[in-house]
Amino acid sequence: MDNKHDIYCEKIDLRLLLFSLFFVVFSFCISSTKAQNNIRPINLQLNDNKYLFIKFPAEINYADMGSYDLMAEKCLNKILKLKATTPHFDKTNLSVVTTDGKYYSFIVEYYSKPSYIAVDMANVKDSIMSTDIIPSTEIEVSDIHTTHVILPTKVADIALGHEEVISEKADPTDNIVKVKSVVDKKENFTETSITVVSIDGNIYPMTVGYAKNPKEMSISFSDGGNALFNDMNVDDDKMRKLSEWIIQKGQYINDLGIEENKMMFLLSSVFTDQDIIAFHLYAKNKSKIDYPIDFVKAHIADKKTGKRYLTQEEELYPFYSYYSGDGNVIHGKDDIDIVFFYKKFTISKEKILYFELYEENGGRNLRFNAPYKTIINAEVMEKID
Predict the structure, then answer these.
(1) Global pTM?
(2) Own/partner pairs for 100-107, CB < 8 Å, 24+ apart?
């Protein structure tokens, strides 16, 4: 009996041992799987002609590139801008640790045409989805025209993907960036990127192509398209009251404007005070068809144009703009008042000031010129508290 009992106990001990061993191996596999899931790398697309901007939810504490073929730079603490230093680099890795203790692992591969140039990591899990991509805007640049990019807040950083493009902040403004090409032919131009970051941490990625005469030379990410000057603080409430006062003063200019296609667009008045000047524009829709506004702009241009003359043109950017009513649409049988405020300026006899009103997805575009005397004959503004 004792021998049988001993044999039985040995069998039980062996089963317990095997079960324990199985349990340990199983637990190790489970924990290994969990660990692998936690550090599963995220694929990134990159090349040497475009920067990739990666925005993290917390500040970046550590970053390491697995290869010298990559270069990275921190921007505003939470943003990493990444670019390849050489074309067709070998697949490599990137590791990032943020101040909230989160570890990010990336596999970086070369793509001749990456499908994104800016990513927000706030909701990224195993891979970058379309909802994680910060959409890029297509712009055109030229060697004979300057393209301007207007942000709603001050510029913190500008990153150019290729040396064929030059860019800088348009001084003395704080929120406008000017961009130009250094090559003069489309076939010599490599598609690249320009990415602008504002001081509030927003990223504005743009893919850049070449055009001798770009379709759009003013790209605005700001609703009003206003300029911010480094030496000027704008009191919105005061500017609104001043705009309403100018509109209430009514029209004293009666000969500058245009009327066609049942649309009227004219200059009502000009006011100045110390270092600012304001233009009161008026538009009326005499038709029953709504007029959605694409943009309203002012330019300074040379009087004389043609092949014999080297012409120059400059777009003016208001530091404050006021639209009555809807602001975006002039409804049928309705009108709108617009007041633009600029830093004070004058023009010579050889220049003209002209205003444009363009219809979105339409052809009822209006333009009229104003002579230099329009500015020097400006009325004086009333003081608004």
Answers:
(1) 0.66
(2) 100/57, 100/58, 102/57, 102/58, 103/39, 104/42, 104/56, 105/39, 105/40, 105/41, 105/42, 106/41, 106/42, 106/43, 106/44, 107/41, 107/42, 107/43, 107/44
